[in-house]
Design goal:
Layout (H helix, E strand, L loop, with lengths): L3 E5 L6 H12 L3 E3 H14 L10 H5 L14 H10 L3 H16 L3 E5 L2 H5 L5 E6 L2 H13 L6 H20 L12 E4 L5 H15 L3
Parallel strand pairs: 1-3, 1-4, 2-3, 4-5
Helix pairs in contact: 1-9, 2-4, 4-8, 7-8
Length: about 210
């Protein structure tokens, strides 16, 4: 089945987990485009550059596959850095062809914030995955700290950071985060990863019965 499925949504809503599992279930390649921006931010910091102040176009153009596999791409510093570089038109342009080339040949499940609106506006299926900020903060805490008991102050800080990033992503002039008009809404507040996957597989099979 050659499909291009766009999975968009805010940070820590579960879109990455869904996209990866959905790709495996449908035997399609998967691309987490957020990792591209995270990797650009990390490489900028390693080069002594400030993602919020300096241009990242050259680093985006030179990004290597190994840069996407680092273990330090999902930390608060890189959350902020990725949000900053994502506002740079030149960075987005440098990464756009990479994203399109990845999916065009054999189809793919691609997750990000502008896949259904900018990268693949004609995707076969568009999903917009979301959850409340407190739920996403708890998920991010668990991602960072495993089974450690939730800390109220840490959760409050993470919630504030997530809400701030939501505003920046929605208000940026270049490719803002928004739900495509034809995207199906997937709310994950009260669903675990398995239930979300089952729900979306049902949507896929209903639309593409073959």
């Amino acid at each position: 089945m050659r499909l291009i499925i766009a999975v968009d949504g805010p940070a820590a809503a579960g879109k990455g987990t869904l996209a990866k599992s959905l790709a495996a279930a449908l035997r399609l390649p998967h691309l987490d485009t957020g990792l591209l921006y995270r990797a650009v931010a990390r490489q900028m910091i390693l080069a002594g550059l400030d993602p919020a102040q300096d241009a990242g176009e050259t680093i985006a153009q030179r990004l290597q596959p190994d840069d996407l596999t680092r273990s330090d791409l999902r930390v608060p510093e890189i959350d902020r850095g990725a949000s900053a570089v994502a506002t740079q038109p030149a960075v987005r342009a440098a990464l756009l062809r990479r994203q399109r080339d990845f999916a065009t040949a054999s189809g793919a499940v691609i997750d990000g914030r502008d896949i259904g609106t900018v990268v693949f506006p004609d995707a076969d299926l568009k999903l917009f995955v979301t959850a409340s900020a407190p739920v996403r903060a708890l998920r991010r805490f668990q991602q960072l700290h495993g089974d450690a008991p939730p800390d109220r102050d840490a959760l409050a800080r993470l919630t504030e950071e997530i809400e701030t990033r939501d505003r920046k992503d929605a208000e940026r002039p270049v490719s803002p985060l928004r739900r495509a008009e034809d995207a199906l809404l997937v709310e994950t507040d009260h669903l675990d990863a398995g239930a979300v996957l089952d729900h979306v597989l049902g949507l896929v099979r209903a639309r593409f019965p073959s």
